[in-house]
Amino acid sequence: MTLLIEDDSIVVPGELIAEGEYERGSGVVQEGDKFYASMVGVFFIKDDNLRVRPLKGRYIPKVGDKVIGFIKDVNLTSWIVNMRGPYDGVLLASNAIKGRFDPIKDDARRIYDVGDVVLAEVVSFDRTRDPMLSTNFPRLGKLSGGRVLEVSPNHIPRVIGKKGAMVNMIKNATNSKITVSQNGRIWIETEKKEDQDKVIEVIRRITREAHTSGLTDRIQAYLNEN
Amino acid sequence: MTEEFIRPDGRGRKVLRNLTVEVGVLDRADGSSRVHLGKNIAMATVFGPREMHPKHAAQSDRAVMRVNYRMATFSVDDYKRPFPSRREKEISKVLSEAYDSVVLTGNWPRSVIDVHVELFQSDGGTRTAAAIAITAALADAGLPMRDLTGGIASGLYEDHVCLDLTGHEDMKGEGDMPILYSPALDEVSLFQLDGKFTFDQFKEAFYTSIDGVKEIVEIIKGALKDKYLSVREEYGVDDSDDDEEEVQAHLETTEEPEVIDEGREIDIEEIDLSTSSFVVGTVKPVTEEAKTQEPPAPAAAAVEEVTEPEAEEIVESIHVDDFEKEESSEPEEVASEADDEVLVDFKEDDEISSTWFAKPGAELKPMPANETVDDEDETENVMRDIEYTMEDEE
């Protein structure tokens, strides 16, 4: 059992992390009893569990994720939703409206049309099928007004902060409505345009300094200055 | 004697040309890099994993690596025709296959990882310069790889084994042997040989290349780490473990009514059908009450009444005998049984297959079958569909 890399250091693929009886977490490959990092990221160890948190990468859907998607195509009884990853989401009409949807009588375009922005939840996903979405839960549905900002999905935990500290701070300082989704899209609505620009600037800064310490304090100071 | 051999550009036999690697040079690509290897300039961009086009080329169990190697028209002394040449297609193919073995493509079935590598200037060993650029760009894109792969060629120049031949040496020399090698795995993922080597020369060239690759991979590592360490040194080390559960909890408990039109409030009733282009004739929208009281909606029942006699008429008119009727009814039953099976097996199937995606230790959430207490959930709809089909059969 030898740990060759310090906790919290940046690793690259093929870097030998540890040898011996450890538990393999995400971002780590195992060859015999040797553990190598498989991606560029920050290395963490917790109770012998080795894990590499990626610094970049595409969004991979997970059941239970809240995502902001753009309606890409409308079918008779479903919508194809761009989720910003390798797989497009499928939003069935039965998952989008309360009652029964009859394609003979009802027009799917009247509910969501191409170009609409929806906040949805991933209800099922496996490697054989495209992810299924649903807007049939509280606070899900169409977003209108505001702007959508795209950041790396790996920076979302930083944007939210500990128990929402970061996002709540930005909300209070700029008097804005912000919805953060796990696929790296952030929806922002403010009354004044200057506030909107400020929010975007702050989020850009968070993503740039995502893997540094004392970020919340620095952003707080920055918000107070301006 | 051979150790003192000096090459036309003043290098010793086992010395690399100057190599610089930069990563993250382009904003729009997922990963990008620029490599200078002597006079070679290569730039690689990575897009993906993303949806595969054309769809039929997708693999059901893994992502496809698609490397596109191109040389700019101005990259050689003479003008290079802009169309992909036979040589470019071949290099694209062998590089695709080489990286397929290094990148963990099994994580994203049915998708593609596109890599475009462009040579702006060339002076021998372009494919190895391209390979170095691709490795750096793939790592920069955050793709999981088994190892960083480096590439370099060794060849024969005036009967001496030399590392990293220039264009001139390659032309005058007797042989050229590019390899792609992963030091941590100790694996060769590409091996090509052109010319005549004795066995001793081959062995020497091979081990020279491997030493060269180890040097190259250290440079790529340095470039990747520099990118993030520069920001880090300014502000210090991140001490917060990102707790995904915490994030999830936050997303679930936000109280602000941020959504404008909630999904559950959109009702068929609200939709004005009179101007809908899909409506044929006037159909009364199904009311909420009717739906909740009687699972098969009255309107739907009306449709049934219309369609059933028609179907009978057709059957009569073509005089289908009993035997055929039986036969035609059988597959229907089978189909419905199959449907049931699918419904039963779905959860199990879901759990098994979704483990492929789940991070170790992450909790798997099954379909919200019985969890949602609110009015209509999926299972109810499914149940109603079954009832519906059973009625049809009767």
What's the structural blueprint in terms of helices and strands?
The complex is a heterodimer of chains A (226) and B (394).
Chain A: E1 2-3, E2 10-11, E3 16-19, E4 23-24, E5 28-31, E6 34-37, E7 41-46, E8 49-54, E9 66-74, E10 78-82, E11 89-92, E12 117-126, E13 129-134, E14 141-143, E15 147-150, H1 156-160, H2 165-174, E16 176-180, E17 185-190, H3 193-208, H4 215-225
Parallel strand pairs in A: 4-8, 11-13
Antiparallel strand pairs in A: 1-3, 2-7, 3-6, 5-6, 7-8, 9-10, 9-12, 10-11, 12-13, 12-14, 15-17, 16-17
Helix pairs in contact in A: 2-4
Chain B: E1 19-23, E2 31-37, E3 40-51, E4 64-71, H1 86-100, E5 111-121, H2 126-140, E6 150-157, E7 160-163, H3 167-172, E8 175-182, E9 187-191, E10 194-195, H4 199-235, H5 244-253, E11 261-262, H6 288-293, H7 298-317, H8 322-354, H9 378-393
Parallel strand pairs in B: 4-5
Antiparallel strand pairs in B: 1-2, 2-3, 3-5, 6-7, 6-8, 8-9, 8-10
Helix pairs in contact in B: 2-4
How would you sum up this structure, described in words?
The complex is a heterodimer of chains A (226) and B (394). By secondary structure, chain A is α+β, with helices and mostly antiparallel strands. Chain A has 3 domains: 48 residues, OB fold (Dihydrolipoamide Acetyltransferase, E2P); 78 residues, Nucleic acid-binding proteins (OB fold (Dihydrolipoamide Acetyltransferase, E2P)), CATH 2.40.50; 79 residues, Ribosomal Protein S8, Chain: A, domain 1, CATH 3.30.1370.10. Chain A contains 4 helices and 17 strands. In chain A, the strands form 4 sheets. In chain A, strands 9-10-11-13-12 form a 5-stranded mixed beta barrel. The longest helix of chain A has 16 residues. The radius of gyration of chain A is 21 Å and the shape is flat. Chain B has 394 residues and is α+β, with helices and mostly antiparallel strands. Chain B has 2 domains: 234 residues, Ribosomal Protein S5, domain 2, CATH 3.30.230.70; 109 residues, no CATH class. In chain B, strands 1-2-3-5-4 form a 5-stranded mixed β-sheet. In chain B, α2 packs parallel to α4. Chain B is globular, with a radius of gyration of 32 Å. The termini of chain B are far apart. Classes of the chains: A alpha+beta (226), B alpha+beta (394). At the A-B interface, β4, β7, β8, β12 and β14 of A face β3, α4, α5, β11 and α7 of B. β14 of chain A pairs antiparallel with β11 of chain B, so a sheet runs across the interface.
